[in-house]
């Protein structure tokens, strides 16, 4: 059985974006009673891969990219499993995007693909929540992807050694209905290729989070929606949407 690592705080009222510098933040194989579950890492940055599943690119009217399409989400967007996704008042369409998350374990700069997995600490579930209307309106993705609460991650980190990527399937459910299901092997750019590509221009630091892209089947959320990302062997990420 995989040894999961949870990140939590003994202060139940602490914000999910708290960094590891806070003395109330701890890691362990379980969350003590009364503690607050936190996102599984404290990243300096959240690196995301767009359109990494061919059919997802096409469902949004785009051709699959010829090299990884990289964008960033701010650490201020992080929430944990169980936290609420806040539906912004200025958006008219908010989408879910279930993804495999990769947590970096050691500094990676100009890393070859053949050496990339040595830089991986472990894996988690990610929901790359997106204000789709604002993404399209802006022509770039910072605002549509960057709202507070728009990066749900967790519930824990599973060590790299305990995960067989070829066996992972990403599934997303909204109010109990399955919306997404795809093998991680359907990604155009694999985890090692992504790390090599990104580390060629951006140093990855321990704790950084990579969201590897979402399968086809993305769709909208509404206030009151319950969204669940399941990756067997990695975890189940649960969040409910509330009105902002």
Question: Which tags fit this structure?
Answer:
single chain, 244 residues, mainly beta, Fumarylacetoacetate hydrolase, domain 2, five-stranded mixed beta sheet, 18 strands, globular
Helix content: 10-25%
Given helix and strand content, the structural type is: mainly beta
Q: Encode the helix/strand succession as letters.
A: EEEEHEEEEEEEHHEEEHEEEE
For this structure, the CATH topology is: Fumarylacetoacetate hydrolase, domain 2
What is the CATH superfamily classification? Answer: Fumarylacetoacetase-like, C-terminal domain
Tell me the name of the CATH class. Answer: Alpha Beta
What about the largest sheet? Answer: 7 strands, mixed
Count of discrete domains: 1
What's the oligomerization state?
Answer: single chain
Termini Cα gap: 40 Å
Helix tally equals 4
What Rg is obtained from the alpha carbons, in whole angstroms? 17 Å
Label the overall shape. Answer: globular
Count all strands and give the number. 18
Sequence of strands across the biggest β-sheet: 5-4-15-9-10-12-6
The fraction of residues in strands falls at: 35-45%
Mean pLDDT: 96
Q: If classified by CATH, what would the architecture be?
A: Alpha-Beta Complex
**Poorly predicted segments:** none
Quick overview of this protein structure:
The chain is mainly beta. It is 11% helix and 37% strand. The protein has a single domain (43-243), classed as Fumarylacetoacetate hydrolase, domain 2, CATH 3.90.850.10.
């Amino acid at each position: 059985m995989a040894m999961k690592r949870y990140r939590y705080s003994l202060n139940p009222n602490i914000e999910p974006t708290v960094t590891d510098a806070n003395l109330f933040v701890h890691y362990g194989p379980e969350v003590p009673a009364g503690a607050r579950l936190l996102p599984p890492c404290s990243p300096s940055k959240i690196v995301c891969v767009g359109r990494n599943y061919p059919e997802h690119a096409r469902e949004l009217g785009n051709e699959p990219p010829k090299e990884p399409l990289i964008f960033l989400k701010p650490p201020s967007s992080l929430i944990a499993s169980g936290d609420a996704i806040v539906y912004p008042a200025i958006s008219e369409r908010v989408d879910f995007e279930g993804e495999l998350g990769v947590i970096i374990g050691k500094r990676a700069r100009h890393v070859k693909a053949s050496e990339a997995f040595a830089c991986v600490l472990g894996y988690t579930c990610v929901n790359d929540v997106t204000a789709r209307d604002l993404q399209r309106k802006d022509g770039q993705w910072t605002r549509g992807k960057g709202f507070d609460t728009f990066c749900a991650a967790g519930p824990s980190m599973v060590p790299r050694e305990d995960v067989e990527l070829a066996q992972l399937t990403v599934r997303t459910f909204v109010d109990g209905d399955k919306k997404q299901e795809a093998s991680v092997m359907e990604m155009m750019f694999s985890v090692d290729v992504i790390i090599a590509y990104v580390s060629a221009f951006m140093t990855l630091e321990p704790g950084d989070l990579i969201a590897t892209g979402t399968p086809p089947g993305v769709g909208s959320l509404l206030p009151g929606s319950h969204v669940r990302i399941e990756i067997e062997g990695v975890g189940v990420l649960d969040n409910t949407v509330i009105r902002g």
